[in-house]
């Protein structure tokens, strides 16, 4: 049978790179990645493995439409933080509030996602469209926490597919990744007074936090969604699903250190650790709903996948 083509938006990133490497190992697939910088080390490495690397920018509709030509599958993961971080740093240097950075990043990510979705909807060869969102914090919190732009931008894009491109939505599956295994929020800090380590978190010890290594595991889950599952699947993708108490005890056992879970309020994280409400609204939602997938209906977990390759 002829090879099929998967186009990976942002193939040099952690999620996209994992998807690219997975499909490059499959003789039935050709891989095309989009990047703003085809000469970057990550792009060069993927090219050496056999990927077709094309220059494309989510701010440029024509470049995206060209990159999607003849695609049988598309993986899309949009980026919020490359806009937010430098803008916030410039605002910090001027002693200004960070909120304009969130507004600009939200506007940029939703606009870029809209262009990508609009372009994908025009591809007659497309069979599968996979998007990587986060929960809709506004919906999940009943409007109580509206400021989590990085989550809400992705939720907006997922909703846009359904409302504005119903035919594309029929080909779409969503992959919700668990918390990254190297997320600094889940890393302990040393307690100089006691010699122990502290996990300072507002979440209850019983709260279950799915954990994933995005660079290693994203690809296998995307493959399962494309090759084995029906469109419309919503997958919570993770490697492990421990409670916060288990994260603490597992870290202590693996590192030969004694560690404790230190409760803290959301306000305390804002005042003492310096986390912005951009980050804290999603934590508030998780804490109050006691559910990592708050507001998402009818999703499945890895054990429910039909694939025998996971």
Structure characterization notes:
- This protein is an alpha/beta fold and 310 residues long.
- The chain has one domain: NAD(P)-binding Rossmann-like Domain (Rossmann fold), CATH 3.40.50.720.
- The chain contains 12 helices and 12 strands.
- The relative contact order is 0.13.
- The mean pLDDT is 96.
Poorly predicted spans: none
Measured as a percent range, the helix fraction is 40-55%
SSE arrangement, N to C: EHEHEHEHHEHHHEEEEEHEHEHH
Number of helix segments?
12
Average pLDDT figure = 96
Family: Belongs to the NmrA-type oxidoreductase family.
Domain NmrA-like: 3-271
InterPro entries: NAD(P)-bd_dom_sf (IPR036291), NmrA-like (IPR008030), NmrA-like_oxidored (IPR051164)
Protein name: NmrA-like domain-containing protein
Keywords:
310 residues; single chain; alpha/beta; Rossmann fold; NAD(P)-bd_dom_sf; seven-stranded parallel sheet; 12 helices
Task: Sum this structure up briefly.
Residues 3-271 form the NmrA-like domain. Keywords: NADP. With 310 residues, the chain is an alpha/beta fold.
């Amino acid at each position: 049978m002829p090879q099929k083509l998967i186009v990976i938006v942002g193939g040099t990133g952690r999620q996209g790179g994992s998807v690219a490497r997975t499909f490059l190992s499959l003789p039935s697939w050709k891989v095309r990645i989009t990047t703003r910088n085809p000469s970057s080390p990550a792009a060069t490495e993927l090219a050496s493995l056999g990927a077709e690397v094309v220059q494309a920018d989510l701010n440029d509709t024509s470049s995206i439409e060209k990159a999607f030509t003849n695609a049988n599958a598309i993986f899309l993961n949009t980026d919020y933080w490359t806009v937010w971080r430098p803008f916030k740093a410039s605002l910090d240097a001027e002693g200004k509030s960070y909120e304009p950075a969130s507004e600009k990043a939200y506007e940029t990510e939703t606009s870029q996602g809209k262009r990508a979705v609009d372009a994908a909807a025009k591809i007659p060869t497309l069979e599968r469209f996979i998007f990587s969102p986060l929960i809709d914090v506004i919906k999940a919190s009943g409007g109580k926490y509206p400021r989590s732009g990085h989550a809400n931008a992705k939720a907006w894009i997922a909703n846009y597919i359904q409302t504005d491109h119903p035919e594309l939505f029929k080909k779409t599956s969503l992959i919700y990744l668990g918390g990254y295994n190297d997320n600094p929020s889940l890393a302990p800090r040393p307690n100089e007074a006691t010699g122990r380590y502290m996990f300072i978190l507002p979440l209850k010890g019983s709260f279950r936090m799915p954990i994933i290594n995005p660079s290693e595991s994203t690809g296998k889950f995307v493959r399962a969604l494309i090759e084995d599952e029906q469109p419309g699947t919503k997958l919570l993708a993770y490697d492990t699903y421990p409670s916060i108490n288990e994260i603490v005890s597992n870290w202590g056992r693996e590192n030969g250190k004694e560690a404790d879970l230190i409760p803290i309020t959301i306000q305390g994280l804002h005042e003492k650790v310096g986390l912005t409400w951009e980050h804290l609204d999603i934590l508030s939602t998780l804490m109050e709903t006691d559910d990592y997938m708050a507001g998402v209906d009818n999703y499945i977990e890895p054990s429910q996948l039909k694939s025998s390759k996971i």
